[in-house]
Amino acid sequence: MQDAQPTQDATPPQDAPAPDESVIEGSVDGLREQALAIWDNLQSHMLTLGVAIEGAILIAAILPAAFFGPRLRKLIQTQIAPRAPYGVLRRAANAFAHLATPIALYILLQAAVLGLQAAGSSSNLISAGVSLLTAWIVIRLVTLVIRSPFWSRVAFYVAWPIAALDAFGVLDDVVRQLQAFSFPIGEDENGVAQTFSALDFLRMLAVFGVLFWGARFLNHLIQGRINAIDELTVSFKALLAKILDVLLPVVALVLALQIVGFPFGTLAIFGGAIGLGIGLGMQRTVSNFFAGFTLIADKSIKPGDVIEVAGTYGWVTAMNARYVSLRTRDGTAHLVPNDKFIEDGVVNWSHDDRVVRLHAPFGVSYSTKDLRGLARAAEERALTIDRVLKSPAPRCNVMEFGDSSVNFDLRFWINDPANGSANVRSDVYMAIWDMLHEMNIEIPFPQRDLHLKSVPDDFLTSTVETRAEALSNSRED
């Protein structure tokens, strides 16, 4: 038999805790060592003379900023803001005046950073403060100038994260990670693979947002100049406005892609997919878009026209890319899609002429003798209403001999259909009512004669007895 192998040494390693040591004591020692390491790091980086100097500069810069800020505000309000034109530029000047003290503090801190860098000292703390202050100033300027909740939220969620990342010194690392996260978009004409990174996408969104806001501002200025030209027709002005509404955002998007260096040569790859998406998912939207151009080009409707479509009566206040805004007499705005006018048709009360004819039919009793005199009186009463035109003159025609009445139709004209038709028709009816009562002419109601051909023998007897009993009871009461 072979000798038994010696047993392995059960002695614990040198770095293992002794059996009698507590696990809790080991954990406490580990936490103590981590706390000491953090404290040493804090002492070596934060509790230094340079950091103390930067903190003192940050606190000391508040006093001169508070001194020069009100003077800077007064200078802007008295010298710059009154000379700025009304609109965005005037709001921008007032916004800078409102933020005069933070701007003065920003200038002082930037000067302190340049001074520390020239002296070879650290300026990390002041640079972090400058980044956060810059983000706050940008957000406040956007809120005061644009006055848009959307762009205020965009500025808040963009400026603050960038400033915070820059303040903690990790902005460059985040930029490198975004640059590394990319996806292929095709190949150029030389066969070189092209990619589009997440950083390029964010840059494109930021640039497009600025250019889109500038395009809207430019569109507002151009449309104001176009509307001031009296030689242009209303429909042509609306056509130019619609073209600008589409063209300027597209130009802003193309410029944004060009600025970030997007390879346009690879767009041919997505051409088929985009065309298919438009053909299937955006068919109604594209139909409304081109229907809007058709409505303006053929001048079927234009802003200011009084129209009736799908039972809705009102006047056109705006013609947009997707819909026509129709304001009713109730004060509500109906947004009717453009293709609705082409598919279902529209009644345009003021297409060529605003003079329109309304009807007020009525009937009189067959006991009326002078029908011609009644027609003339109705025409004269219609002229007593202010909105009824004297030329063309009202006309009252006999339409038919009805079952219970002689039916007339009083026709009159107005030239302001935008002010409503039901109200002027009501006024005419009121005048006709007064006229009929003054002439003692009855307005009949439907009457029917009942002829009994076959009844039971005791029907008449029981009817007579019932009536006699009723009369007797009434006399007794």
UniProtKB/TrEMBL annotation:
Topology relative to the lipid bilayer, per the entry, is: Multi-pass membrane protein
Q: Tell me where the transmembrane regions lie.
A: 46-68, 99-119, 125-142, 154-171, 201-218, 239-258, 264-282
Name a GO CC annotation attached to this entry.
plasma membrane
Is Membrane set as a keyword in this record?
yes
GO MF term set: mechanosensitive monoatomic ion channel activity
For this UniProt record, give its keywords in alphabetical order, as a comma-separated list.
Cell membrane, Membrane, Transmembrane, Transmembrane helix
Put simply, this protein is called Mechanosensitive ion channel protein MscS
Protein's cellular compartments: Cell membrane
Q: Which family does it belong to?
A: Belongs to the MscS (TC 1.A.23) family.
Q: Where is the composition biased (Low complexity)?
A: 1-20
The residue ranges of the Mechanosensitive ion channel MscS domain are 285-351
Q: Where is this region: Disordered?
A: 1-22
Keyword Transmembrane, does the record have it? Answer: yes
Residue span(s) of domain Mechanosensitive ion channel MscS C-terminal: 361-443
